[in-house]
Amino acid sequence: MGEGVDPTQMCQTLVHKVAQSKQLMAVADPDILVLFESWLEELEEEVAAYLQQHPSAASLDLAEHLGLSKSGADFLLAKIRRGDKPQEEQSC
């Protein structure tokens, strides 16, 4: 049987991650959240600049260049290429 993506499992995982994020926000120091958001914006700008110079860059290239994990680079590449900003929790 071939490998594939189970959309139901993917949606459940996403909803769980959003719930975890909201729980962390409830207990995190607001000053730390502001710093994290600033850091994430700077990181997104670095990714965008790298993609301008290397438009077909793979996530592994980006991970090595910026010192990120591959999954972190995957997330940022997808986010930048879609032009998305974080959104409120949505149902699937």
- Per DSSP, what share of the residues sits in E-state strands of 2 or more residues? under 5%
Which bin fits the share of residues in helices? over 70%
**Helical/strand content category:** mainly alpha
In N-to-C order, the SSE pattern is: HHHH
Q: Residue-averaged pLDDT, rounded? A: 78
Multimerization state: single chain
Give the count of helical stretches.
4
Any idea what the shape is?
flat
The gyration radius over C-alpha positions equals 15 Å
State the low-pLDDT regions, or none: 85-91
Biggest sheet: strands, sense, closure?
none
Structure notes:
This protein has 4 helices and no strands. The chain is an all-alpha fold. It starts with 6 loop residues before the first helix and ends in a 10-residue tail after the last helix.
Annotation keywords:
flat; 92 residues; mainly alpha; disordered C terminus
